[in-house]
Write a structure and sequence with these properties.
The chain is of the alpha+beta class and 513 residues long. It is built from 14 helices and 24 strands. The strands form 5 sheets. Strands 3, 7, 8, 9, 10, 17, 18, 19, 20 and 21 form a 10-stranded mixed beta sheet that branches. Strands 11-6-5-15-23-22 form a 6-stranded mixed beta sheet. A hairpin with a 4-residue loop joins strand 1 and strand 2. Helix 2 crosses helix 4. The chain is globular, with a radius of gyration of 23 Å.
Length: 513
């Protein structure tokens, strides 16, 4: 048996049978989920050699029908390609062929299927925050169901680099939440009883213009005043931290020791712990409507007309939050951009820190068109993550095609070659695009709303670091009716409900104790 468990299933990534079975037992019931958890299928062949074997193992282990398991989507560039070769692509808007993307049929049924299924709480969204909330609610004894429109980690959480970063946090209550989250993430492997590939890694933010330098100096002074051990360093000092980095165009940088996790292992560790506590998870389940009667939440209606009852609904649906909340008359001004990134073949240690340009938060959410700002890091497995190009998507993220853009193919390789000349011939294995949510002022929507029982958790600036704290806060509010800090400013005056007027002056769901 031990020899059989050592059998290589994915030759590209050298993933064994034992590792695939571990992923399935952790809750991975699809080919793409096993890929995210183990990296099987992330190599040069993009799963051509192992997908069928993985499908067979899933069917045997779970009882699913193999023929019904969807193959994972191949991603540009399909075959391994030298990243510098992309720069020859013409940077012009490309006509997007909608026929390439299977369109979901709109639900036309006006009748709800009353299944009499009810829960104490419904969580919508299977990313960092939805899973953190659902897991902690279940552990608190709350009968909870999590609904995910696709698969666990298929949205922006699954496209996240996994860096636990504190240096770029907003001030005020946001910083306190992030600082608490940073401390808790250091204990998360123990809390979840799982290997998350947690490791300490520096965060280096560099400036290339006088304007960026001024902003970086202000960021440094701000964080230093809050007690964060941030170092401001010269270009000469950068080389001691990043020996392969070309610093000719860099005027200065700030550095802080932070951390990195494997985002997929974190997501599925929460899945496993949640299920052990009684959490119900339904993937590929689209919520059509949030049901409200008078001023109270009553549950949700699914795209197939099925009704699930609950007096508590938590919306942690990322970019889809605004569209979803509009079904009950709640206006949540969640913005989003289509973010893009590359991942390379595994190489020897080359990028020692998480690198980002000081222009990132100024340009990565530009509302006028595609913007590129360099950010990069290397995973524990040696793959280099390179981004990011972003541009505003259509008003409804459901209409976003998420195709790799010409702007991304041209601009990011040029930035990589300028900053890391030795990586000019780096081979790109895949790219991805995702709907990345953001909120006005980079302050999230968090906590209770004017609709009794409806809570929000969306629009976070740094998702990984704050996820555990968000789960605790929402659990406190739902179980105890109070939490340890005043988060009322996150929603008050920013979220509007078109239902009956309601004076919130005496509401105390978010009060501090």
């Amino acid at each position: 048996m031990s020899e059989r468990l050592d059998t290589i299933i994915c030759r590209c990534e050298e993933i064994t049978l034992a590792e695939v079975l571990e992923a399935i037992d952790a809750g991975c019931s699809t080919i793409s989920a096993v890929k995210r958890y183990t990296r099987a299928g992330m190599g040069p062949c993009q799963g051509r050699g192992c997908a069928r074997a993985i499908a067979q193992l899933i069917a045997q282990r779970t009882g699913n029908i193999r023929a019904e398991l969807r193959p994972d989507r191949a991603r540009f560039p399909i075959v391994p390609t030298e990243i510098s070769g992309f720069s020859s692509i013409r940077e012009e808007p490309l006509e997007k062929a909608e026929t390439m993307i299977p369109q979901r049929k709109a639900c036309t049924s006006s009748l709800s299927i009353d299944t009499k299924e009810s829960y104490d709480a419904i969580v919508i969204g299977g990313g960092y925050h939805g899973l953190s909330i659902a897991r902690q609610l279940a552990e608190a004894g709350v009968k909870t169901i999590l609904l995910e429109r696709k698969e666990i980690g298929s949205g922006s959480s699954g496209a996240n680099f996994g860096f636990v970063q504190l240096q770029d946090s907003n001030t005020g209550i946001s910083f306190e939440l992030n600082r608490r989250g940073f401390e808790r993430m250091g204990q998360m492997e123990k809390e979840l009883a799982a290997d998350l590939e947690y490791r300490k890694v520096g965060s280096l933010i560099f400036a290339q213009t006088d304007e960026q330098m001024a902003a970086l100096e202000a960021l440094y002074r701000e964080k230093h005043a809050l007690g964060l051990d941030v170092r401001f360093i010269s270009p000469r000092d950068i080389t001691s931290l990043e020996p392969y980095m070309n610093v000719k165009s860099i005027k200065g940088a700030s550095w802080h020791l932070q951390a990195q996790i494997n985002p997929f292992r974190y997501l599925f560790a929460m899945v496993k712990k949640g299920k052990e506590a009684g959490l119900t998870i339904r993937e590929n389940t689209i919520v059509r409507e949030i049901r409200v009667s008078d001023t109270s939440c009553k549950g949700v209606v699914l795209a197939n007309g099925e009704c699930i009852r609950s007096n508590v609904v938590i919306v942690a649906a990322g970019a889809y939050t605004g569209t979803l909340c509009s079904t009950c008359g709640l206006e949540v001004p969640i913005e989003y951009v289509i973010g893009e990134a590359f991942i390379s073949e595994p190489v020897r240690p080359h990028i020692m820190n998480f690198i980002s340009s000081a222009s990132f938060f100024a340009t990565a959410h530009d509302s006028t068109g595609a913007a590129a700002s360099f950010t990069a890091g290397q995973t524990a497995s040696g793959n280099i993550l390179i981004g990011e190009t972003s541009e505003p998507g259509p008003s409804n993220p459901e209409d976003a095609l998420l195709l790799t853009s010409a702007a991304h193919c041209v601009r990011i390789p040029r930035m990589l070659e300028e900053l890391y000349p030795d990586l000019k011939r780096l081979t790109a294995l895949r790219s991805w695009a995702t709907c990345s949510p953001s909120a006005p002022g980079f302050e999230p929507f968090l906590g209770a709303t004017e609709i009794d029982g409806l809570f929000l958790a969306a629009g976070f600036k740094s998702s990984v670091i704050i996820s555990s704290v968000v789960g605790q806060i929402l659990t406190d509010l739902i179980v105890r009716g109070r939490t340890w800090c005043d988060i009322s400013s996150f929603n008050r005056g920013r979220v509007k409900w078109s239902g009956a007027s309601k004076d919130r002056s005496d509401r105390d769901e978010n009060r501090s104790y």
